[in-house]
Design a protein that fits this description.
The structure is a single chain. The chain is mainly α. It contains 5 helices and no strands.
């Protein structure tokens, strides 16, 4: 019986962990490039906020809070859709049975950290140029 074999269980847990890390990395890069484009399209807004006296700290907090709220809403939406899928037995594979509450906790923490890291990266990029340079380089 292979289910009781400890070495196979360890190998399967290792492979699941590696696959999770790979998917998390892929998710990070897809999220990074998507949010980068969204935030760059809002660059002029932040330049205007800075030109009327908004502090860097306030804008930093605003960006990070926006990203965290978007992450939480997206996470809740995915969980609700997976629960609906589980309830109505749609054709989508039932992923809920593969993860425990601890797994979802890890995923939530990882996504929160990614949101904060991406917010800080955007903030560094947006605030490294002066207001005049940033405003004059924006296309009309």
């Amino acid at each position: 019986d292979l289910e009781g074999d400890p070495s196979e269980r360890i190998l399967m847990q290792f492979l699941q962990g590696a696959a999770s890390l790979l998917l998390l990395g892929l998710l990070y890069f897809v999220t990074y490039f998507t949010l980068k484009n969204i935030m760059l399209s809002r660059k002029k807004d932040f330049v205007i906020f800075r030109s009327i006296g908004a502090s860097k700290g306030a804008l930093n907090q605003m960006v990070i809070i926006e990203l965290v709220i978007m992450m939480i809403l997206a996470f809740i939406t995915v969980i609700v859709l997976l629960l609906l899928n589980n309830t109505f037995e749609l054709l989508i594979p039932n992923y809920l049975r593969y993860f425990s509450l601890l797994n979802y906790t890890y995923i939530t923490v990882a996504l929160l950290l990614m949101s904060i890291i991406l917010g800080h990266k955007f903030n560094k990029k947006i605030f490294k140029t002066s207001i005049i340079t940033a405003f004059s380089s924006q296309p009309e």
